[in-house]
Structure formats: structure tokens, C-alpha cells
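Practice problem: predict the structure.
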Amino acid sequence: MQRQRIMVIGDLMLDEYIWGKVSRISPEAPVPVVHVTRENSYPGGAANVARNLAEFGITTSMFGLAGRDFNGHKLVKLLTAARIDAQGILLSGLFHTIVKTRIIARNQQVVRVDREERNTLKAPELRRLASILDKRIPQASAVVIEDYGKGLITQELVDHVLRLAQLHKVIVTVDPNPANPLVWRGATLIKPNRQEAFAVLGVPYQEEHEALEKAGEALLEKWQVPYLLITLGEDGMLLFHPPNRPYHSPTRAREVYDVSGAGDTAIAFLTAALAAGISAEEATEIANHAAGIVVGKLGTATVAEEELIRSYAENG
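Answer:
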């Protein structure tokens, strides 16, 4: 896995964490007063997928759009410091970088403040990004398309990526967004969560396993891809790979503190494993172990090599 070269294409964000202590309620309103003790910033959104890959020792490059503003430059610096190639990030003066600020006290999130606007690629920016991808995709082991629904991922961009990937036999995995219905024919694997799976089909959410299996089969037919992985939160993951029966991997999480970023970790490790030639079933297990580790940490977290080995030793 660590010998792979993986590209991540998707909506970029900056994750800010403000940590503090609460000792009283505000006299101005019935809300806690948080005394700030420290602050951290991390690459967020699709950039968190790249961070997960790079922190594990995988050669990683990031492609997307950020604002030509303080937060955009900060995001690029954070990615570069994390040994992520950020040359594929376009900075636009017409766009404000998306920032999500979480205030945490007593190991619990008090509030999240989002500063964002949806922005699609303009024709000149799409041409610039396509030109970069033309040169980089042939050198990659795999491509992750991470759609947070903020406007970067369009059918035109997806078609360009999938066409290049098929030409050069490069694996493409997708984390889709139900609010942005696209044609994914030509991708290798798509990874929705359970709620997204039903939302894409436009049917009511259901907990029953039989309904989930039917949804998985319907999505395989709709998307025309060889692999589908539905993440199930505390119930683990369910892999569809016809003609095989669906493969269920139970949760590997021992403690759950924060589920933010778990999906990013899952698709990062799943993609790296598939790129390394590991079977889809074992890749699912690896992704499940990795996701189980990060939900036991506060904030958007990553997984170290020794942590993954320890999880296998402890959980099988």
C-alpha cells in the first residue's frame, strides 16, 4: 500500500478546531462560555482523504479548488507540510475557501460554524485542471473522487477523469453525494453510506438487511460498476461484488468518540489496498480497521502503520 501513488480529486475545506474549558453559563444567553486553551487547523473535506493517505506513508497528490485568500493559502501550506503534492490545487479570486470551525469543550463538540459557498468550476479553470490531470493520471496507481457536493465534481470533470483512467488502466474509487447525481460508469468502486444509498435510489431509508441488499443490487445496476461498498456505521461495512454474495465486515471500532472523517479514512485505505492488488474483501477489512481507529479519536484523525497492525492483533 505504501508503494502506491494516489491522486485525490474533490471539494477542499479547512477544518479548524477551537479547544477550551467550560466553567459557567453566559449571563447573556443560556449557552456555555468556552475559555479557549488551544487551536488547530487541518486539511478538510477531500483534503482529509489525502491527509490520511500521506500520513500512512503513501505518495499522495491533491486536486481541487480553493480561494485565493488567507484560508486557501493556509490550506495549501498545511497540505505541503503533510508531504502532499498540492500543485493540482487551483486558487481562485472568485471563490472563498470553505472553512468549518468546531468548538470543543470537555471532549464534546459545543457548536460548529460553517463558512462556505457553492462554486462550480468555470470553463477556464476546468481546462486548466483537465490539462493537469492529462499529465498526472497516467502516472497514478489510483484516483479517489471525493464529492462533498460543493460544486467541483461535475459530469464533465468526471467523464474526463474516467476516460483517462480507463485508457491507462488506473483504479478509480468514488465517494458520491446524493444531491449531485452523476453517471459513474467506468469507475472501479463506489462507496456511499447507508443513508446515501437509499437517498440515491429515492426510496425511504430502511434498517432491514434485506432492504439494504436490494438497495445494493439496485445501485450496482444503476451505476454499472464492479464493486459497491456501503458503510453502515456501528454495523460495519457491506461489500457487493457480483456474482459473489455480499460480504459483511462487522465494525472494528472499540470506542466511538468522533465519527467525523471516518468515511474519508475508509475510502483512503480501501483505495490504497485495491491499488496494491489486495482483494476487495480484504481491502474492506483494512478500511474497516482504519475507520474503527479514527472514530476512537477526537477530531479529523489519521491512522499510523503501527495502529493498523495493533488493531488486527487485537480484533482479528
